[in-house]
Request: fold
Amino acid sequence: MLISSATFIASSPSLKLCPATDLPEFAFIGRSNVGKSSLINMITGIKALAKVSGTPGKTRLINHFLINGSWFLVDLPGFGFARTSKEESRKIESMIEGYLLRRDNLRLTFLLIDSRHNPQRIDLEFMAWLSRNRIPFVILFTKADKIPKARHTANPTTYRKALLETLNIDPVFILTSAEKKTGKEEILECIEEVVKGEE
Ligand code: GTP
Ligand code: MG
Reply:
């Protein structure tokens, strides 16, 4: 699928204030600094569409981008950022939860995981929560350029085993790098499958 246009539509502080629309949407979620905004820029081919920063906690609102005039990419704030105040993290968590549980046009969630790390409790808990709430998700391993090629398959294998054993789920995994533009086609294929099915 080709992306011919990508337009920033809105930054919303809560589900209630998100743009009213029936168009299908696809959200990017994951820990702070994992590379959500960078991946949205990579996929759309627009460098500064979503705001990126080396400091965790950059994205604080729910950001909607309209793609090809027919579906949305949504950049969410990261979770698990230790240096935010308790009150601020709770606010962000309930914003994310409200969005994921009640956004009717949300079709698929991309959960981003840093390829360099072994399964972390916070990510596993989040997957358990998604799975309990029947929120469909695909796992994107990020920053693949930072690990040696030989290790590219190790992490998905470890994850798959952990997820089958602990949660009895077997999600789709895609290896990505915003830097090297890895994984773009596979992500767009996942989206296209859903968008086509609705036409
Ligand atoms: P929050 O909005 O704070 O939750 O972060 P985020 O998940 O949106 O991460 P963001 O895209 O802002 O990227 C965080 C940092 O990681 C930035 O310094 C990026 O340049 C870097 N980064 C993101 N993707 C990649 C990648 O594929 N490779 C490398 N080497 N660095 C990356
Ligand atoms: Mg961000």
In short: The chain has one domain: 6-198. The beta strands are 6-12, 25-30, 62-67, 71-75, 106-114, 137-142, 173-175.
